Amino acid sequence: MSQLKYALFTGCTAKQSTPELLSSTLAVADKLGIEITILEEASCCGASHLQDFDEFLAHVLNARNICYAEKHGLTMITICNTCQLNSQMTKHALDTNPELKARVNEKLAEVGLEYKGTSQIKHFLYALIDDYGLDAIKDKVVTPLSQFNIAPFYGCHNIRPSELHEHSNGGENPYMPTSLDRLIEALEGHPVDYSSKNKCCGFHVELQANHTSEVLTGNALVDAIDHDADMMVTPCPLCHLKMDTYQDSVGKVMGRDIEIPVLHMPQMVALALGATEEEIGLKFHVQKAKHLYTEAS
Amino acid sequence: MPNNETRKVTIKAFRFNAETDYLPYTKQYEMEVGKDDLVLDLMNRIKWEHDGSFSYRRSCRHGICGACGIKVNGKPVLACKQNAIELLDLFDNDITLEPQSKKRAIKDMIIDKGDFWQKHADVQPYVVADVDPHPSHETKQSVAQFNAMLDSDLCIQCGSCHYACAALEANPDFLGPAALTAAYRFTIDTRDQAGEERLKLTAQPGVGVWDCVKCFECAEACPKEINPIEKITKLHNMQFEQGIAKRNVATKHAEGFLRGMKKTGYLDEADIVLYSEGILGMPKHLKTAMKMMKSGKIHWHSGVPFIDSIPKIKNLDEVQKLIEISQTNTL
Questions:
Q1: Would you call A43 and B295 a contact, using CB atoms and an 8 Å cutoff?
Q2: For a tag site, which of A21, A234, B1, B259 has the least CB within 10 Å?
């Protein structure tokens, strides 16, 4: 296999509240010999909130991010479902609407950039599965996760709308996604089958519709726990933040104790590939998770 | 298996009669499914060949009346439009027919859609206008004005998006994607005069667009491929464009992204909470903030003005300039 090279769009959370996401992603890339160029010029994707305020501006800023991947001539990979969705939505809008593309490029020209549409955008999860390959990953496992029941939590923005994502997510069925399950199996863990795996965590209305947010997170956490999960794993740091940070308050809404570690997808892979404790960064979790490193090794 | 073969399968169906059953149950039906069979054909076969009491709504058989919306393995489908073999392929030949909302089931696939129709009615889903009973000329719309409706006029009120909506499941007061799509369709109509009223309704916390959780279930669900959340985003934007948006936690949260982006290029995670909630709204976040601080997710200086706790992106001046020249809305 020729060496895989990607331009990494880190997103905001990996640079702030989830440093463990960035360190574990880089550790996985290092272990697998994937070359990563971090797009240090890339700004926030708007997280679907800036889009609500000013859709055109959000397109301009996302197009600017993609321009930098295009400059490197690389596929842009994301490590956040919402970054993936918003970047992909802008790419789709510009690639299918010449008038909008021209209006956006008129603005970008003011800072010496031009959006061409030459770079693909895909989430790191699908780069690992579809480009690197599960068999190749399996060969690199040094710490099998065989003692863990792992509940995959897919996160909305990687699987819906399927029409937008089908070329970058291997045609995942949003009603029965399998990629994370297959990744867990490749790492010799036991994927937990539960019906909330493709549901919404409620992160995006955490502030303005808190009860909705807590109920949605609670449903998912409780469903995973009731199906004997030792941990959950998600490719989205926003799902992680909601599900890891708020277990106390969510427990109150659900009327029961909730305690379950929620790992980022690259943390799980890094664990199996024998990355260091520092790289995996389980100490940054609000719900205690450090024991997983000891238990795994 | 190639798609042109007949397949012998076992179809499961949700069964429940609210008048006689305490709990719902599942029954299985064996049948041959051909390549041109629709889900509606499977339901007809259950009723005609297995159990005459099996109940469901059907009418036009042409994907236009919206009566036969059900779910299959959680996937909303219009029974008269959805090919059965495609569905069997999608779910490894293991499918269960379910009503759109189990908690609203009256008999088998038939549900009480009262909440759907009430919300639809709430947004005044019609052109509100004083029309001269004896007009001297027709009301004209340009192609561009018509196109601005996007595809929202194609809605058949089947309820697929409404009963797939995660926000509505948790908050019964939320208008939901179908009603909001109708609100958009008539607000954007140049003949209509109730736009402001509708925008005010859809701006209400707890009821309107700000309670959308952005799960995109509606976009996935729509059998007419309307993409309701696209219209919800349009309504959000229109609230700012037309000065309807009031300063509240939700609108400040959307607009507040630019505060961090202008300073560092990134969203400022701590500042956005502080800015959106205001000082008075902060106490409820203290416990979480302390926990996040303990685990190193945030720092004592996070969100504190004049302290750079977030790295800056390269070429930040480009982002600042682009915001300056591209921003179209204000709060």
A1: no
A2: B1
Neighbours of B34 (CB within 10 A): 13
Minimal Cα–Cα distance from A209 to chain B, Å? 6
| pLDDT tens digits along A116-146 | 999 999 999 999 999 999 999 999 999 999 9
pTM as predicted: 0.96
CB B160 within 8 A of CB B100: yes
A13/B258 Cβ within 8 A: no
Search chain B and give the residue with CA nearest A219: B170
Distance of CA B217 to the CA centre of its chain: 6
Residues of A with Cβ-Cβ distance to B238 under 8 angstroms: none
**B19 CB-near residues (< 8 Å, 6+ apart):** B107
Residue to mutate among B227, B297, B314, B331, with most A CBs inside 10 A, is B297
CB-CB contact of A127 with A269 (8 Å) = no
Q: Which residue stretches of chain A are H helix?
A: 19-32, 50-53, 55-72, 81-96, 98-109, 124-126, 134-139, 156-159, 162-165, 179-186, 210-226, 237-245, 247-254, 265-272, 277-280, 291-296
Sheet containing B75-78: give its strands across.
B25-33, B7-15, B96-98, B69-72, B75-78
Rounded CA gap, A283 and B166, in Å? 32
Facing residue for A162 by CB, picked from B220, B294, B317: B220
Q: What is the pLDDT of residue B4?
A: 61
E strand segments, B39-85: 69-72, 75-78
C-alpha A87/C-alpha A96 separation (Å) is 14
